[in-house]
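lol ok so funny story. i was supposed to be doing the assay writeup but got distracted and ended up predicting the structure for this chain instead. priorities right. anyway since i did it might as well share w the group, maybe its usefull for someone
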Amino acid sequence: MKKIINLWPYILIIILAIFIRFVNLDKVPSSLYYDELDVGYQARSFLETGKDYRGGFSPFYFRSFNADGTPLPVLITALTSLFFTSPEYQIRSGAATVGVLVVLVAMILVFQVTRSKWAAVIAGLVFTFSPWNLHFSRLAFQAEHALLFLLAFIAIFYHWLKIKSNTAFFASAIVLGLSIYTYRTMSFLSPVLMVFTLLYFYKDFIAFGIRKSLAWIFLVLLFIIPFLYATTIASKDQTRISQISIFSDPMTPIEVQRSRELVSGNFQDPTLGQTATLQSKVFHNKLLSYIEKLRNNTFNNFSPDFLFLSGDPNGRHSPKNTGELLFLDILPLIAGLYFVFQNIKDKRYSYLLILLFLGAAPSNLTLDGSNHASRLITFSGPLLIIVSLGYFSLISFLSRQKWGRITSGILIGFWLFAVAQFLSKYFYEFPIVNSREFGYGYKEAIQKINILAGDYDQIYLSDINDPPMLYYFYWANIPPAEVQNYGTDFSIEVIKGLPLDKVKPYHTEIPLCYESVIEGLKPNILYMVSHKNLPMDFRSVDKDKVPTGLKLIDVIKYPDNEVAYYLVTRDSIGAKLVNPIKGQKCP
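and the output, tada:
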């Protein structure tokens, strides 16, 4: 009983972490985005058929329409989805559960290095209410899973450093090996982390025994090598890494040649970039171009603008005008770095600094890796630990000073205000302002389509915002077995005599309010079109008139009451089509 009483601060934090990650999970963020639905539909397919929704099975990936996804997020989602009936909770509960475990592991890790219960409590609070960690705990993305396995590996490895047990030693190898199955950035980080850990703690490995160390390496590689082989060499799909790496940018040789031409001063001779001068070769080449891109990404990812002011510019990764950390965290970050450098001789602290730079490396090495909060999730782990250490050292220092309790209370008060301000913005403003980035409207439109589908021969779904078919499969409750049987080509020209023939993706560059486009619409087809496809306002009688020849079935609106989608069809009276009027207004 006494032990339970002593654990009350940790239990309270875990309860807070559970609450803040699960409350209104079906409404914040506002809707399930395409990537989230992919995880959810894969989980449904696995539970119902034992295969991915493309009909394959592999322990190394779940094959989607556009890429190979890592398996652990899908398997965890499949497990947690069994406890919920809400589709949003079914899909997001896996990441939310993992987010709670991240808080728990962070507290254990900080306690290991400080031996202070209150330092661990502070770490728990920092991770619980961190904008970065909280947001990705509420998304069915793969990022939070990578963070959990990274922190779990560090915690178990630090435990081994203290007690030198075989169980902790080999458990750390298993967790590190499994981390590669969480998120594609770990395809780079997991093997690199293995090598750096071996080099940095080589004395501890040698002292523990060469045979055991070789077994540790073998155990890690036993997980890593089959995954890398299956998702690169043996993969039918082009790997995601090869598409986004700074080394695969097709513009690099063009930029190098252009720079060499500029140095020459003669822009009329097209061969100057190819037969470059020695000066051009030294200062303008691919190597320097890669270094510049790596430098720019690195500085941007460590910048105050990204960390404290604007965050990720992608509206799915971060609320607008919100840093990945609380603005107040700038002080404890500085204090935490100072605290780490004070203890730099302890390898557990210096290893945190190594992890800080290694964690950012996968993002730094990608074309659009600058300020990419998802790919930087492994950077957020050691960063938030350092911030936690900073809060702990600041409060410890202030408490020893005159008026220490008052100044510590002021610091805590400012932190509570910063947290409350973020939570208000996140739970009340974010679902409305960022609804477009999360594919809002697909669920509402497809649920209405399900009711109307029997009145039409076919359903055409606009692809101008996102690929629409996965949204349809999930929200129309199409059994994954039907998708497996149909294949991956859903274009209008493909007719297989199967039920899924009825629904097709639809694309048009010309607005549907022009006469020629309206005349080209087919009768007895229900069209779900974006406001971009039909940039007119039919929400009330005093707005735009529906173009002649077009029949408005329904309007789907965003939470801010702006138009998201229209359901329309070709207008007809009996069997006769209503012809559009020439010269009618169209934006």
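The first strand starts at residue 62 and ends at 63. The chain has three domains: 70-243+296-433, 245-284, 438-577.
back to the writeup now i swear
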